[in-house]
Each structure stands twice: as structure tokens, then as C-alpha cells.
Amino acid sequence: MKATIKNLNNETVGEIELADEVFGLPSRTDILARMVNWQLAKRRAGTHKTKTISEISGTGKKPYRQKGTGRARQGSMRSAQFRGGATIFGPVVRSHEHDLTKKVRKLALKTALSTKAAEGKLLVLDAASAESHKTKELAVRLASLGLTSALIIDGANLNENFARASRNIPLIDVLPEQGANVYDILRRDTLVLTRNAVEQLEARLK
């Protein structure tokens, strides 16, 4: 599969061959959904907590005698049916992480890249670099490329000026190649890869 290489001035500067085993896979929404759920589950703090009956402050005395009152039998005022009582089967502090095999994670990343390529929402840049760290200059260049919501993935080392200039532009994210992930690829409309990023992703995922 061939793709056109452009520069930040929206000029065509060449072509690149994209590997079919990385950018030409069929779309698999089930794989993408599993990967996104796995990523978001890992991010959850899991600090939710309600008090069990042993943690409620209050007396341990039986409220009233067992028989003869005409009321239902009760053993504690800290029980869930009373105001200020415990919560039964409430959330506890825990990790929400679950396992997902490396094979599936690798397939999901390749599927996400392939999906963007198939939709025509993959753009290959010659380089993601800027002479100045000023946001205004970069915003004009990205607008000329038609990028309003984009994830830009560069090689292992980001250009510092480009990374700084892009920070204040809404809906524009910049990541190094090793940070490429399914969730960030899918949450932005356009995926922008530099020539270095393509080479490194193909070397890692082939």
C-alpha cells in the first residue's frame, strides 16, 4: 500500500510503501473494543469505598428484646435497614485491571492503524519539527493540512519545539512512537505519522 508524504506546508515531497501486515488488516471492532476497555480499566483508581457493618460507629447492643414486642427481630442498629447503617455489597478499594494477552494487544494496535488507513484518515508527514515553540505558527500550518482533531506520532525522540507548540492547540495530541496506543488513535479524527514513526512501528509490529 502506497501513501503520499507531505510536509508541514502541505506540499507533497514523496511516497512511502506501507506494510500490509501493519496497515492493511481488516477492521475488527471486537478487538478494538477489548483493547480500549483494557486501557481504561487500567486507568481507574479503584478508590471507591463504602462502610461495612464492622466499620460503622455505633453500639453493638441489641436494640430491643427478641420476642414479645410485635416488631421484627433486630440484632444491631448498625444494620443496613437503619438510617446511618452499613451498605451491603458496596464497592471496596480494588484494582480494575484485567489480563489481555500480548498477541491481542499487538493485533489491536495494528487493527487501529489499518482502520485509519482504510478510512483515508492516515496522513504521513516528512517530519514533525518546528523552528519556534510558538503555538500560533504551528496552528496555521496544521490548519493548512486540514487537521482539527489529530494524533501526531513521531519517532522515539520528539522535537522539543514542536511538542511545546502543540500543547495549547485543542484536540491535537503529540506522542513518541513507543507511546502509540489504540485509545488515543481512535479518540482523534486523523492519525498523523512521521516517516520515522512509520519505520519504527513497522519494525516493532511486523
Automatic annotation (TrEMBL):
HAMAP family xrefs: Ribosomal_uL4_B
Superkingdom of the organism of origin: Bacteria
GO molecular function: rRNA binding; structural constituent of ribosome
Matches recorded under Gene3D superfamilies: 3.40.1370.10
Organism classification: Bacteria, Pseudomonadati, Pseudomonadota, Alphaproteobacteria, Rhodospirillales
Record region (Disordered): 49-77
NCBIfam families found in the cross-reference section: rplD_bact
A matching Pfam family: Ribosomal_L4
A biological process from GO: translation
Keywords assigned by UniProt, alphabetized: Ribonucleoprotein, Ribosomal protein, RNA-binding, rRNA-binding
Name of the molecule in the record: Large ribosomal subunit protein uL4
Subunit-structure text: Part of the 50S ribosomal subunit.
Family stated for the protein in its record: Belongs to the universal ribosomal protein uL4 family.
Function: One of the primary rRNA binding proteins, this protein initially binds near the 5'-end of the 23S rRNA. It is important during the early stages of 50S assembly. It makes multiple contacts with different domains of the 23S rRNA in the assembled 50S subunit and ribosome.
UniProt organism field: Azospirillum argentinense
GO terms under cellular component: ribonucleoprotein complex; ribosome
